[in-house]
Amino acid sequence: MSGKQKIGHGTRRLVLVRHAIAEGDGRFQGQRDVRLTVEGRQQLGELVRKLSRFPIRAVYSSDLCRAQATAEAAALELGVKIEMRSGLREMHFGCWQGMSWKQIVRRYPRLSALWIKRFPRQQIPGAERFDQFMKRVRLEVGNLIAVNQGLCILAVTHAGVIRVALASALGMQVRNLFRLALDPCAVSVVDYFPDGALVRGLNG
Asked: Cα 15 vs. chain centroid, distance in angstroms?
């Protein structure tokens, strides 16, 4: 444990990692099961180095393959098995899945304008409702920290999931979620206490 960050008694530390660069990066991939690119796989060595300073005792991953492949690199180095969690999946974007924002604006000009104006209330056809997405993520995060008292754990997931987790810890208004930058393989850290949460790192 020498040289690794320690956590206090009664604290649960959640290390949140966005998956490495995947096919169609920058699009509304949602729950499309795309794979990592060559560039994404090249990021994994640096990610493992960044994670080495944390005393991680459990690894959880979205069951989408871009997150799973990212988690496998960390779990191999840590000697820990991965537990797949469908609750860590990205939001389903319905008819927008797989499209870039430019394509969405061109194909759905009125809907895209309403989505920006009314976010998070505006529904996307065929998509997971945003309030249900938030409820799913908060429940999943709550479950993970509840069963890992006093431990540091890793969750490899997606930008939307991490934004909801961070916003909940910070008490942010939901409409400001996209002010949180989350790059591929970025590391964010939240400590949970009996009376609240503290964000210790963001997009590192």
From this structure: 10
Torsion angle defined by CA atoms of residues 6, 202, 75 and 33, in that order, rounded to the nearest 10 degrees: 160
Beginning with the edge strand found earlier in the chain, give each strand of the sheet holding 82-84 in spatial order: 82-84, 56-61, 152-157, 12-18, 187-193, 196-201
The alpha carbon dihedral of 147, 150, 81, 53 has a sign of positive
Note the pTM of the prediction, 2 decimals: 0.94
- Domain boundaries defined on the chain: 12-201
| Rounded Cα–Cα distance for residues 31 and 55 (Å) | 30
Residues of the chain with pLDDT below 70 are 1-3, 6-9
Paired with 17 in beta bridges are 156, 187
The superfamily CATH assigns to domain 12-201 is: Phosphoglycerate mutase-like (3.40.50.1240)
Instruction: Say which DSSP state 90 is in.
Output: P
The DSSP secondary structure of 65-132, one letter per residue, reads HHHHHHHHHHHHHHT--EEE-GGGSPPP-GGGTTB-HHHHHHH-HHHHHHHHHHTTSPPPTTSPPHHH
Residues 6+ apart with CB under 8 A from 43: 20, 21, 184, 185
